[in-house]
Design brief:
Helix content is about 45%, strand content about 15%. With about 450 residues, it is an alpha/beta fold. The chain folds into two domains: about 140 residues, Aspartate Aminotransferase, domain 1, CATH 3.90.1150; about 240 residues, Aspartate Aminotransferase, domain 2, CATH 3.40.640. The strands form three sheets. The protein has a seven-stranded mixed beta sheet with strand order 3-9-8-7-6-4-5, with helices on both faces. The chain has a three-stranded mixed beta sheet with strand order 1-2-11. Strands 10-13-12 form a three-stranded antiparallel beta sheet, covered by helices on one side. Helix 6 runs parallel beside helix 7.
Amino acid sequence: MTKRISPLASATRERLRQRVEAIQDAASISPSEVVAAELKSTDFSTLPGYDELRFYRSLGQKFGIENPYFRTHDGRAGSHTQIAGKALLNFSSYDYLGLNGHPEIVAAAKAAIDLYGVSASASRHVAGERPVHHALEQALAQHYGVADSLVFVSGYATNLGVIGHLMGPKDLVIYDSLSHNSIVMGGVLSGAGRRSFPHNDLDSLDRMLTLSRGHFERALIVVEGLYSMDGDYPDLRRLIEIKSKHNAWLMVDEAHALGVLGKNGFGTAEHFGIDPRQVDIWMGTLSKTLAGCGGYIAGCHELVEYLKLTAGVFVYSVAMPPVIAASTLKALEILHREPERVSKLQRNGATFRALALARGLDTGNGAGTAICPVIVADSAPAIMLSQRLLERGINVQPVTHPAVPAKASRLRFFLTAMHTEAEMAAAIGATAEELGQVRGRMRALGPLL
């Protein structure tokens, strides 16, 4: 029986034959070399950066440095956690106010599961709309004193999809050089002109807009309310002046600022004593202070209506699970009700940085908030320091290039309202001791690296 070849397979073979002939004609190489090239092009290990990953993995194995990422926590991780059965002091949690696992939030989540199940099972346009979505959005809008808000199932996708949707090829997106990847990639997705200004250098932002604003229809300035790698924040008053001067929109990413900045933890606007309506787009996440998952946009009615009806990241995505909406709604209520949690967190942030500076540690741009970097410089010693601290019962993650600039690798300490001064002092003491030993070891290994 003659084996029948499908039209699809035949067409695929024809395309491959034409590609082989084209490569041969262009490079005058043998058919065997062409086949080798074809095989290589389908090997995932040839993807950019894979060789570098292999190199660092082998280097770590050679010098006994473990992969610090993807460690499995045995249960809830707050100011303390447990990994592989070992109790640890934890500085790698976004649970700034200690709300994850709060009895009222757990009860709200369980009640939502009983009522709605676990999933909305559809996009909100189709059949995923639930009353709790509206309740959460109304509460977020009231929090910012704006007309409306909209929640999304992913914080990363909120920035990516909203920036990518609002702006277009005739527009300009201009952002801080230390902005989160989701902001940068949102600009890429939009096809707009893109510029970045030096971190928190608003004079440079003003000059850049003076030179370029007239070449674009719309302009969007994007900053973070609290920068997740450095623990510092921008001058919101000046940003509002600049955006007004240049007829631009201003978008503030409150992912790490909500619950952290401002007397009551209301965020950047409260910290600066500014009417939140002076900012065009408030963006934030539900996964930090509010102990949930997802993102939100808050602003005027026209903005929210436009996104709700036209933004692909919302229209074509499943609705936020009702259990998440219910639990984050309760977390926001507790944030408003218990400002003493915010006060404790702010004291802890200031205390931790003071302790670090007293021991000679480099805290970079840290401003004494819930995020405090300890700059180590190179990637290998940062990873090694993290491992040594883990062995001493302290969990803190390294952040290395390219997530941060070259020679700016660091340990990133997240503080919570639940940490005690004794725990923070112990962590700083151990960090200072181990950093000295790690640097000594790195000098000894220098010729081998």
